[in-house]
Structure prediction request, 244 residues.
Amino acid sequence: MAAVSHLLTAAMALMVASSWLLVAHSADTNRAYSPCSDTTVQRSDCFSFGIAFASRTSFFYNGSQQLSPCDRRLSLSSANSQVAVFRPKVDEISLLTVNTSSFSPDNYGGYMVAFAGRKYAARSVPAFVANSTYTVTSFTLVLELKKGRLQNLYWKRDGCASCSEKSNFVCLNKQDCAIKISDCKNHGGSVDCSLGIQLAFSGTDKHLSVFNSWYEVENLRQYSLYGLYSNLRDSLTSQYNKIF
Ligand SMILES: *[C@@H]1O[C@H](CO)[C@@H](O)[C@H](O)[C@H]1NC(C)=O
Ligand SMILES: *[C@@H]1O[C@H](CO)[C@@H](O)[C@H](O)[C@H]1NC(C)=O
Ligand SMILES: *[C@@H]1O[C@H](CO)[C@@H](O)[C@H](O)[C@H]1NC(C)=O
Prediction:
């Protein structure tokens, strides 16, 4: 009797597991996996976007016009650059991490740009990450969509509010909390200076349903989500050429 019920439980667990997988699979209807493709999404979808690391000037064409890293005119793939690709679930608050144990942003120009799309290309302004003195490790990125199409990506700053409790942080340019790079493990110090990027969605999906995660981030910010999310950790891809 005990053996039978045990078997039953196992079989049920299997069914539950496979139907869960089925649900998870069918809920993501977005077939655009490359960050350099165009798409419109609905709430249950996942969404691919990239973050490119390079010098500030390499994001500008002809010295003045900022283009998407997907735009071949920038020729970022031949510049000293790296790209990370993420595929978070739309309208969920995610914490993305870029592990810096074998990747040091100051060796790749020290700035990053978040981007997605090709014909409908959107990109953030370049954000300072690191130079030979300081590194910023904590960011909030908002993806703004209209009818499910990405319109804008922007870095949300908190004016150094989060520096105040931490004695080894300094406020740079009244907007970023930075730590001395010599304190970081990848520069011989003791702190893991991996980047944490808190992500939120604002605007509407393709059925005009309103995204809520941005409001949640805004309200939760003071409690810092960093301790709560450890699930979304995507790898840093080393070659532009694999994607572009
Ligand atoms: C690049 O900039 C130069 C000087 O500012 C200008 O003469 C030239 O037309 C620009 N080229 C393009 C392709 O925009
Ligand atoms: C980064 O990777 C190293 C080595 O694998 C690991 O010890 C460390 O915990 C990682 N840091 C984060 C923030 O994931
Ligand atoms: C690093 O960046 C900070 C903040 O912008 C600046 O004050 C400092 O001079 C920079 N250091 C170097 C070596 O470029």
The two ends are 59 Å apart (CA to CA). The first helix runs from residue 2 to 27. The longest strand covers residues 138-146.
